[in-house]
Amino acid sequence: VQLQASGGGLVQPGGSLRLSCAASGIIFSIHAMGWYRQAPGKQRELVATISSGGSTDYADSVKGRFTISRDNGKNTVYLQMSSLKPEDTAVYYCNAIRGSRTYWGRGTQVTVSS
């Protein structure tokens, strides 16, 4: 199983980024997908999730600014991030969940700074 996150980078406050996570080795369409982030010195925290049926959930800190979506034809989950703040700076990870199994990918760094 591979989950490859991409799209991170340096962006100014108020800017936007779109993260992608391409999955292989799983039946993507039946897995719930999630984005998490971990800032230096902090625990990893949930950012957003999307079920196999397309239902979404967000951390309060990103509601109204971030949008999670999925393309089952491309085995890819996306995180559109807008109105970025310095406190959004973190390594962002995607995961795939099915029952008791959770798969994690390598993260992608997002830095919000002027």
Poorly predicted tracts of residues: none
Shape: globular
Proportion of residues in β-strands: over 45%
Specify the structural class.
Answer: mainly beta
Distance between the termini: 37 Å
Number of helices: 0
Number of extended strands: 11
- What is the typical, i.e. mean, pLDDT? 97
Feature tags:
mainly beta; four-stranded antiparallel beta sheet; seven-stranded mixed beta sheet; 114 residues
Could you please describe the fold and organization of this structure?
This protein has 114 residues and is mainly β. The chain is built from no helices and 11 strands. It has strands at 2-6, 9-11, 17-24, 32-38, 45-50, 56-58, 66-71, 76-81, 90-98, 101-104, 108-112. The strands form 2 sheets. Strands 2, 4, 5, 6, 9, 10 and 11 form a 7-stranded mixed beta sheet that branches. A 4-stranded antiparallel beta sheet has the order 1-3-8-7, with no helix packed on it. A hairpin with a 2-residue loop joins strand 9 (90-98) and strand 10 (101-104). It is globular and about 40 Å long. The model has no long low-confidence stretch (mean pLDDT 97).
Summed up:
By secondary structure, this protein is an all-beta fold. The protein contains no helices and 11 strands. Strands 2, 4, 5, 6, 9, 10 and 11 form a 7-stranded mixed beta sheet that branches.
List the helices and strands and how they pair.
Elements: E1 2-6, E2 9-11, E3 17-24, E4 32-38, E5 45-50, E6 56-58, E7 66-71, E8 76-81, E9 90-98, E10 101-104, E11 108-112
